[in-house]
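Supplementary notes for students who missed Thursday's class. We covered one full example, reproduced here. Read the sequence, then the structure, then the short commentary at the end.
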Amino acid sequence: MKKTLIVMAAGLGSRYGGLKQITPVGANGEILADYAIYDAKRAGFDRAVCIIKPEHENDFRELFSRVDFPIDYAYQTPDHNPPPERTKPWGTGHAVLCCKDIVKEPFCVINADDFYGLEAYQAISDFLAGRGVPNAPSGIPDYCLAGYRIETTLTENGTVARGICGVDSENNLTEINERLKLIRESDGVIHDRDSGVTVNDGSFASMNMWGFTESLFGHLETLFKDFLAEKHGDIKAEFLLPTAVGSLIDSGQAAVKVLPVSCTWYGMTYKEDREPLARAIADMTKAGQYPAKLWT
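Structure (token representation):
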């Protein structure tokens, strides 16, 4: 069974302050998406589809010209007759929907500016190969989510936004609560400065790494149509993938298995995150987890 990696790379990081998707982090100029594609290839995926803005196509094609893996492109723009003052796309749910005409097989979705680790790709790949949620009602789509321990996803350089997962006794996803300003305070407690909520170490955090069957596209089309009917005039509204999946769970149209992973997530929320990320990748390379040069 063929499997595709979808890499969401159309967003600009406002807190980071630039196109962090193409910021080098490896010794030979590798970007985070290089490591994502390399790990996905090792985990049994067959190709990648990068979702980009049309104006960045030349940059990405040049960067990936050295990559020994099939790569296709999908394009996300603020279409659907947006208000004149809206310049950004419609969000991560819309980004995935932009792939519906070129992805006809099970797929994994990731952010381009996150480092997930081989273990997570292997877990998603194995799940998609089985395409099954244990004890799910007949006919419900088989989806999954990589679950990272919240303490492995923080940065020392400021607050982060994370989706904290609620699960049942069998690790089926029941809800995702968005916490917008999480930080480990001086007393050691992980606290959300936006809501005042405390999050316990060991809680599952969604880092937007999902496994889906192609049935998701039909659901997204319906939900996006409803979103536009309600939010079209809101220049800041976003059709978010976690919100869309949450509505499918609530309506009984989907079941999602949270797959616990023990690896550490790395990302670049802030410019100051780049150096510790590059050091971590250098350490993993030195330990033999990655070759000195990913693509030869």
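Commentary. Helices lie at 32-42, 57-63, 92-97, 118-130, 216-231, 241-250, 274-286. DSSP finds seven helices and 13 strands in the chain. If anything here is unclear, bring it to office hours.
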